[in-house]
Every structure is written in structure tokens, then in C-alpha cells.
């Protein structure tokens, strides 16, 4: 077990209690902030090398959003850490009842390659804030960022309590053989299953942030120009390699015809007449991913916008496919690339049925100037999260939980939800030694009479109380 | 005989019809459940008596009264629990609607245990119904009378398709676990907990595992020993020790060990009289297998009190073992019987270290007049839950989440926590289609200025 030494070292640090005081956690978090400032250039370069990520995107999604989470956490940590007092029954009025937020211990975070800084740091912020020791495993697919995190980050954090581990599938498998007190995984559903199965051997609780095909319904009643821009932005951001990107569109034939020119214009406004030359469009992370998306693009519907690819650069043009059939290859898996298929439906009901006949996605989007339509789609479907009349934006609000359901994941995080995810909420009741005669009601010998008293008493206090024992 | 696939398939079709979602429907089902508990009280108590030798008032207070409280609470609070929660917005989303919706998960599975066979399926069921789900209920086959009764009664009072009861043992449960559920709540032991989670992993099904462990009970020298021992006696020997949050073993200074024994002895007399075996309030071990298991834990131990057994009736007297070695068999696994080992420790530090070197327990108990000491024991250990200066009682406060950590489990329920466990918290952001100008900032072409 190549990682046994590391894990037991971290466990010893955990048992020493080092990570528990608030001051310690704040200091580690502040160091993360310094990392983001000091290494900004390196971050820009690494993500550009790995994903062709435009500096604007990196600054927004990999730096600014992390800083927001950091500040939110630093501002609120002392409040989040406090014991939560809870309502008591009449019989417990003189007792102290509260929920403690205990750290779990040694936790493991497995990060993916598409937002290699954000999806590494945001869970880490929560884990540190909650008082844990942490092992983080960045993705080997985003090589330059992996090196950056493995080499630069450890010097900002307490090496006794936080470690970065690198490697591929083999190393991750060996890592998962160890016992962790929590595992946080971001990645694909098949690997999510493997992670949860490994965690089950140790009864380790997990959060799995997975993916799926996020549908985007467009009603006939909508401002096509705005809709096209919001959808194009969400689809082509990070060259489509976003777990909450709108994966495919559902709309009527009429809407498709109106949408295509609007999308064409949006693409041109964003990336110019030759997107390949735009500094604002990313690239596929690797050859494997490039080939997979190109195969989907070529085998489905008809190319209405874009369609060009360049293997040497791993470039895929912002592409829209029209007249896509539900049975087409591109409708069988999460696309994770800058290709937007349009599937024509007759009406909203058909769109809802279509969505509900498939696995529950991480996000559902609905566009309509008629609020009733947006609400119908919301109420009659199920997904991790939902955004009406825009894409991606719901995950930028730290007060909203971010997570999936069914195949798209379990658990959630962001903001306080991160802190809660990495904390064990421990119910505590502290009683006094007095009032023993009251307790006599619960002791044997049992009798109808005793029960009668208790029953009568509990009837009186039925409002909001559980039992009176 | 219907297959598991058919039963679960029907529940899913029933859920997909949408009828379990309206609040009125959920409350109607909860009301029916309440009626069932009240109308069939006699039958329920009879089943508990047959399964666990549990007598009327005892069974009522442990398995029925709490359930009625949960039902009343859920019906009263459902509207507020299920209401969308509006969240704090930032500048960018000022004009938008941002809230969390509580939605049902779908079809959930509840697997009960045999020690409190009625409430351990019914209490989760209340939460699952309140959250709008379809529920497959699988009571423990070990408590066969209660299982049979639950299978008979539920269809008489509740929607048959939405809330089916499945009975059977290991083979049936194994088959059930191959089906896809949207949440599984399992109450039972650690070994089977791993099997349940592994089965759930195949479908990426979230789980709540209410397991067990050895719940330690530290008695400080500075405490009212008489009171402490009365409370401990109650919690340890109720249900013949077959309680997941029973104080499993005692840690105390050697100087008070014999006093602890004396006090418990006196309390036992008070509770059960001279002849425990003939007390109607003292239960029995659930079956021969567990009887043999618990009895074998006595081998080689110093029995300070009790020790009498009678296989024919699965009777084991309230027993205390003293000067127990931490390496002995009785200190290896959860006892789940009326045997109380005392392990002596010289200090609270030693007690804390002892506790921390073992798996995290479901409950932790500490008795002391010294508030600082209690605080210290709690903050330097980890457990599912805690009661200070008493035992068991944190279970009865539904505002506290009830669940384990580490080997004692994951997730929690009771009261509102049940509702949340069986709900999906869906983040919703509803924006305006207009107001496009603010969006311009985020679109390419990107520029430093925009950032």
C-alpha cells in the first residue's frame, strides 16, 4: 500500500487536534488566498497549456470564483463552527441541546481536469474550514496544472495535515484502498460508482459530483437574441467542457429556424468570423477527448453552424447541429465539447416527457418569456439544479447548494454547504443530575398509571414536541 | 409470489404518476398511519410481546408514543418544511429569484431491524412519506410477528402501490438490493451496512446507514453515583440490552468500580424485583443464536453480578463484569445484550485515548458534576451523538439529528432531519430574459477591463 505511510501520518496529525482551532483553519485558508494571488500567472499559463483556456475564463472561473468561496468562508467560519442550539421539549427545558460540527478526520478529494484549479480548491476550502486533514488528488489529464498544484501548493499549507498526491488510474485505485473519513469526488458516473464501491468497504461517506446531459428547453415565446447569447455562452465556455453546460436544446421546428441565425450571430460576436483565431475559445484537453467529440459531431444530425476541427490543435469550432434524432450518437452520452445539438419537439409537454425519460441531469435549463412555462418545466422534472432563462449562473451563487441527483451525483457543496458536507453534525444533549423523580416515570416497574401520566403530559405538549419521557 | 422487480416497478410507476407529491396527499397518508397506530395498538403490542417479550406499557412508550409524536410533528410542520427556501443573492442576481426547492427523491427503501421492530421501520417511513416519496418497507424477518403485522396493516391504511411491504430474509433482501432506489435507509449492523452501501453504489443511490458499535460510558469520580447508576441501569438493560445506543461498557476509576456495581445492583432490585426472571418488565434475547453469542462473552470473565442464563427462554440475567481486559472478546464487538463490562482507567485522558483508539461509536455517554470535564470528553472524541449525565435521551429529542459516524453509520434522521434526508434540495435560479446589458460583461471577447 504505497500511500499507507502518508495516510497514517495525516491521521496522526489529525489525532493531535492540530486542525481544529478556528485560528489554524483561518490561517490555512488565508494561505490559499495568497496562493491564488502569488501564482496567478502560473495558473493562467498552466490552464492555457492544458485546455487552451482563455485568460478571461481562467480569471473568472478558476480564480474569482475560488476567491468568492474563500472570502465567504473566512467571513462566516466562526458562525458556522458554533454549536447550533435546538428547540427542546418541555421535559428538556433545563437541559442543553445542540448540534456540534465535528470534523470527520482525514478526507480525500479527487479533482477532475476541466476546472482543475476550481474543482480542486473549492472542495479543499470546505474540508479545511470544517477542520479536517486533507489529501487532494488532482487529475493527471490536466498535466501542467497537476504539476503546479503538486509543486507549489504544499508550501502554502501545513505539510503535516495537507498533501497533494499525483498519479493516474492505478495510483487512484491504490489510494482508495486506504480508509478515509470522507471522500469527495468530481468526475464521471462510471468512476463515481467505483469510488463509492471502494468507500463502502470502509463505510466512508461520499459526495459525488458527476454529470449527465443537461437539457435546455426553449419555448416559442422568447427573445431569440438574448436566448441565443446566453446559451452560446454556456455551451462554448471552456470549449464545452463544463459539467453544467447546456448539453442539448429542445425546441419546436419554428424555434430552431429562428434560433440558428441568432446562434450564428452570437458565435460571431463572441469569437469573430474565424473562431480558431479567437483568443477567447478553449481547446479539448487531450487527443482522446478531441477524437470522441469529433466522432459525435460527425455522426449526428446536420451541421448548421461550425463543424470545423483541427486535430493538431485539438480545436473544435463552436458547432450547432440541427435536426438531431434522439437515437443519434451525440444524444447517448454527455458531450463535454463545443457542440450543441438541437432536438426538435412538438411542444413543452413533449420536451418534459423527453427529459423525464432519461437519467436525471446535473442541471436543467428552460427559456421562456412566459414564467408559467419556466415553472412547468421546473415542477415537472427533476435535476441537481435549475436555471430559468440563463445557463450556468445558478452555481455562481454561494448561497445555493451545488450537487446532482440520481446518475448526476449525490451530496452537495458551495458556501456553507461545503462546510456542512465535510462536518459530522453530532446531536448532543447535556442534562443535570437533579430532577431524578421526574425520570422515575420512565423506569420499571412499568405500569399503565405511569404511562397514563406520561401520555397525558405528552398530549399537552404535543405542539412541536416529540415525547415526554 | 411477486418478484421484487414487479413490486418496485409498481412503486416507481405510482411515484411517476405524481400522486405522492401534493402536500394534501402526504398529510392524508400520515393521518391514515396515525389512525392505524391508534386503532391497531393492541395488535402491535401483541406482536412486540411475541417477538421480544416486551410488555404493554414498556412497548408502548418505546415504539408507539414516539411514533405518534413524529407523526403529529410531521403533519403540523410539513407545510413549512416543504416550502421553498429563498436564499441570499448577490449583486448580479439581485433582480432574480433564487431559492432551494425541497423535492421527493423518488422510490426509497427502508430496511428495519429486529430490536425495535415497529418504530425502526415506521419512523423513517413517516419522513419518507412526508417528503413525497414512494416507499418500499422491509421489516426485519427476525422479529417475525411484527414483520407479518406490518405487512398486513400497511396496505389496509395506506396507498398500496406507493408503500408496499416486502418480507423475507437474506435472499429476499439481497434480491431487493439489486433493484434501483433513490435512497436507502438501513438500520442494522456494520457488516451488512457495507453490503448495503456496495449494492447502492451500483446505482449511485445515496444511503443512510444507522449502524452500531460499542457506545462507551465514562463515569467520573466526581458525580452523583446513585443517580448516574440508575440512569445507566435503565438504558443498559432496557430491551434486554438490545438497543443500538445502550451504554455498551463503562470506563471508570478503579476506586469507584465496586460502588458502581452496588448501585446498579440496588437499582436492578428496584426495577425488576427480587426475581428478575419473573418480572413482566424484563425482556428476553430475541433468539437462540443471539443468546449463544451473548452468553459466550461471559467466558473467562469476572462476574460481579448476574450471569444466570436459561437457554429455553433465551433469558440472560442483568450482568456486570468487572476488571475487564480491553483485549477480551466482550470488548471486541457490540454486546447487544444485558452484559455490562467495566474497564478501569486511571484518568479522563486515558478514557479519551481508549475511546479514540476504537471505532467511532453511535453514542457516547459521560457522567460528571464537572461541566468542563464533560465538555472536554465531547470535544476530544467523535461519536454519532452524545448524552451527558444520562443515557439514550438524545434519541428522544427530534430536533437533534440521530445518526452515526464512521463505523456507526452515515446520515441522520428524526423530525425535520428525516424530511431532509428523504428530500432533494434543488437549487433554482430564475432570471429575467431581459436585462441583457448586465450579461455583456461576461461574454467574449474577454478583456482585462471586463474582469
Describe the structure.
The complex is a heterodimer of chains A (469) and B (451). By secondary structure, chain A is an alpha/beta fold. Chain A is built from 16 helices and 18 strands. Chain A has helices at residues 4-16, 22-38, 40-51, 55-81, 118-129, 143-152, 169-175, 189-200, 224-236, 253-271, 287-298, 348-356, 371-379, 416-421, 436-439, 448-460; strands at 84-85, 96-103, 106-110, 133-137, 162-164, 182-186, 206-209, 215-218, 248-251, 302-305, 309-310, 315-316, 319-322, 339-344, 363-367, 385-388, 409-410, 423-430. Chain A has a seven-stranded mixed beta sheet with strand order 10-13-14-9-8-15-16, sandwiched between helices. Chain A has a six-stranded mixed beta sheet with strand order 5-4-3-6-7-17, with helices on both faces. In chain A, strand 4 (133-137), helix 6 (143-152) and strand 5 (162-164) form a beta-alpha-beta unit. In chain A, helix 3 (40-51) runs antiparallel to helix 6 (143-152). Mean pLDDT of chain A is 95; it is low at 459-469. By secondary structure, chain B is an alpha/beta fold. Chain B has two domains: 4-211 and 408-429, Aldehyde Dehydrogenase, Chain A, domain 1 (3-Layer(aba) Sandwich); 216-395, 3-Layer(aba) Sandwich (Aldehyde Dehydrogenase, Chain A, domain 2), CATH 3.40.309. Helices cover 41% and strands 16% of the residues of chain B. Chain B is built from 15 helices and 17 strands. In chain B, the strands form four sheets. In chain B, strands 9-12-13-8-7-14-15 form a seven-stranded mixed beta sheet, with helices on both faces. In chain B, helix 8 links the parallel strand 5 and strand 6 (207-210). The interface between A and B is large, with 113 and 109 residues.
Amino acid at each position: 500500500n504505497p500511500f499507507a505511510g502518508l495516510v497514517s501520518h495525516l491521521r496522526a496529525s489529525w489525532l493531535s487536534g492540530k486542525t481544529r482551532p478556528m485560528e489554524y483553519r483561518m490561517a490555512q485558508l488565508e494561505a490559499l488566498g495568497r496562493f491564488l494571488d502569488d501564482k496567478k500567472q502560473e495558473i493562467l499559463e498552466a490552464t492555457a497549456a492544458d485546455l487552451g483556456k482563455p485568460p478571461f475564463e481562467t480569471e473568472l472561473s478558476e480564480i474569482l470564483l475560488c476567491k468568492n468561496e474563500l472570502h465567504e468562508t473566512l467571513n462566516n467560519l466562526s458562525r458556522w463552527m458554533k454549536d447550533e442550539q435546538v428547540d427542546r421539549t418541555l421535559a428538556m427545558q433545563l437541559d442543553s441541546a445542540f448540534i456540534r460540527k465535528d470534523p470527520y478526520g482525514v478526507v480525500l478529494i479527487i479533482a477532475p481536469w476541466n476546472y482543475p484549479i476550481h474543482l480542486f480548491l473549492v472542495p479543499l476550502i470546505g474540508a479545511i474550514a470544517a477542520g479536517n486533514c486533507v489529501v487532494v488528488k488532482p487529475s493527471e489529464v490536466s498535466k501542467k496544472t497537476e504539476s503546479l498544484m503538486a509543486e507549489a501548493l504544499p508550501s502554502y499549507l501545513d505539510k503535516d495535515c495537507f498533501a497533494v498526491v499525483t498519479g493516474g488510474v492505478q495510483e487512484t485505485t491504490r489510494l482508495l484502498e486506504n480508509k478515509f473519513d470522507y471522500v469527495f469526488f468530481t468526475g464521471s458516473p462510471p468512476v463515481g460508482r467505483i469510488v463509492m464501491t471502494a468507500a463502502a468497504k470502509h463505510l466512508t461517506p461520499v459526495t459525488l459530483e458527476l454529470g449527465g446531459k443537461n437539457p435546455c428547453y426553449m419555448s416559442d415565446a422568447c427573445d431569440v437574441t438574448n436566448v441565443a447569447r446566453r446559451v452560446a455562452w454556456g455551451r462554448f465556455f471552456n470549449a464545452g467542457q463544463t459539467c453544467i453546460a447546456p448539453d442539448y436544446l429542445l425546441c419546436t421546428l419554428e424555434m430552431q429556424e429562428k434560433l440558428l441565425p441568432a446562434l450564428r450571430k452570437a458565435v460571431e460576436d463572441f469569437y469573430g468570423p474565424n473562431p480558431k483565431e479567437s483568443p477567447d475559445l478553449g481547446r479539448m484537453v487531450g487527443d482522446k477527448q478531441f477524437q470522441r467529440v469529433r466522432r459525435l459531431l460527425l455522426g449526428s444530425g446536420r451541421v448548421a453552424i461550425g463543424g470545423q476541427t483541427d486535430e493538431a490543435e485539438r480545436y473544435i469550432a463552436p458547432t450547432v447541429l440541427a435536426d438531431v434524432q434522439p437515437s443519434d450518437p451525440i444524444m447517448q452520452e454527455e458531450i463535454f465539447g463545443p457542440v450543441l445539438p438541437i432536438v426538435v419537439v412538438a411542444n413543452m409537454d413533449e420536451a418534459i416527457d423527453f427529459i423525464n425519460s432519461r437519467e436525471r441531469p446535473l442541471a436543467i435549463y428552460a427559456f421562456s418569456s412566459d414564467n408559467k412555462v419556466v415553472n412547468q418545466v421546473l415542477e415537472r422534472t427533476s435535476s441537481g439544479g435549475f436555471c430559468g432563462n440563463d445557463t450556468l449562473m445558478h452555481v455562481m451563487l454561494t448561497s445555493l447548494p451545488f450537487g446532482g441527483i440520481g446518475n448526476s451525483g449525490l451530496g452537495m457543496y458551495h458556501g456553507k454547504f461545503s462546510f456542512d458536507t465535510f462536518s459530522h453534525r453530532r446531536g448532543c444533549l447535556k442534562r443535570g443530575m437533579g430532577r431524578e423523580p421526574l425520570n422515575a416515570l420512565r423506569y420499571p416497574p412499568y405500569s399503565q398509571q405511569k404511562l397514563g401520566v406520561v401520555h397525558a403530559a405528552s398530549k399537552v405538549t404535543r405542539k412541536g414536541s416529540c415525547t415526554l419521557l | 409470489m411477486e418478484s421484487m422487480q414487479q413490486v418496485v416497478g409498481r412503486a416507481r410507476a405510482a411515484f411517476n404518476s405524481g400522486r405522492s407529491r401534493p402536500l394534501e396527499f402526504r398529510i392524508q397518508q400520515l393521518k391514515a398511519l396515525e389512525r392505524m397506530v391508534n386503532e391497531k395498538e393492541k395488535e402491535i403490542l401483541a406482536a412486540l410481546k411475541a417477538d421480544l417479550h416486551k410488555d404493554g406499557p414498556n412497548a408502548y412508550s418505546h415504539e408507539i408514543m414516539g411514533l405518534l409524536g413524529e407523526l403529529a410533528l410531521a403533519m403540523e410542520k410539513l407545510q413549512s418544511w416543504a416550502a421553498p427556501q429563498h436564499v441570499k443573492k448577490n449583486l448580479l442576481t439581485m433582480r432574480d429569484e433564487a431559492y432551494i426547492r425541497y423535492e421527493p427523491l423518488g422510490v426509497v427503501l427502508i430496511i428495519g431491524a429486529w430490536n425495535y421492530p415497529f418504530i425502526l421501520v415506521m419512523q423513517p417511513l413517516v419522513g419518507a412519506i412526508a417528503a413525497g416519496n414512494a416507499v418500499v418497507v422491509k421489516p426485519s424477518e427476525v422479529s417475525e410477528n411484527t414483520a407479518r403485522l406490518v405487512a398486513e396493516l400497511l396496505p389496509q391504511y395506506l396507498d398500496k402501490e406507493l408503500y408496499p411491504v416486502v418480507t423475507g430474509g437474506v435472499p429476499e433482501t439481497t434480491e431487493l438490493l439489486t433493484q434501483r432506489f433513490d435512497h436507502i435507509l438501513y438500520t442494522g449492523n456494520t457488516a451488512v451496512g457495507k453490503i448495503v452501501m456496495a449494492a447502492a453504489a451500483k446505482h449511485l443511490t445515496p444511503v443512510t446507514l444507522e449502524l452500531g458499535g460499542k457506545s462507551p460510558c465514562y463515569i467520573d469520580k466526581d458525580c452523583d453515583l446513585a443517580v448516574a447508576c440508575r440512569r445507566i441501569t435503565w438504558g443498559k438493560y432496557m430491551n434486554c440490552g438490545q438497543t443500538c445506543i445502550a451504554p455498551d461498557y463503562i470506563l471508570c476509576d478503579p476506586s469507584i468500580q465496586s460502588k458502581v456495581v452496588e448501585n446498579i445492583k440496588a437499582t436492578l432490585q428496584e426495577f425488576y424485583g427480587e426475581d428478575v426472571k419473573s418480572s413482566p418488565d424484563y425482556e428476553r434475547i430475541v433468539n437462540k443464536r443471539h443468546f449463544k453469542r451473548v452468553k459466550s462473552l461471559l467466558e473467562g470473565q469476572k462476574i460481579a453480578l448476574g450471569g444466570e442464563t436459561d437457554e429455553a427462554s433465551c433469558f440472560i440475567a442483568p450482568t456486570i463484569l468487572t476488571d475487564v481486559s480491553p483485549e477480551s472478546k466482550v470488548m471486541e464487538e457490540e454486546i447487544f445484550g444485558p452484559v455490562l463490562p467495566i474497564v478501569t482507567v486511571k484518568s479522563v485522558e486515558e478514557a479519551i485515548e481508549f475511546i479514540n483508539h476504537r471505532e467511532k461509536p453511535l453514542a457516547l455517554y459521560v457522567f460528571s458534576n464537572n461541566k468542563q470535564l464533560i465538555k472536554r470528553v465531547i470535544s476530544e472524541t467523535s461519536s454519532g451523538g452524545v448524552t451527558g449525565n444520562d443515557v439514550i435521551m438524545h434519541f428522544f429529542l427530534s430536533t437533534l439529528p440521530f445518526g452515526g459516524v464512521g463505523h456507526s453509520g452515515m446520515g441522520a434522521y428524526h423530525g425535520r432531519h428525516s424530511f431532509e434526508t428523504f428530500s432533494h434540495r434543488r437549487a433554482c435560479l430564475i432570471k429575467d430574459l431581459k436585462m441583457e446589458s448586465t450579461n455583456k460583461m461576461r461574454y467574449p471577447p474577454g478583456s482585462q477591463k471586463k474582469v
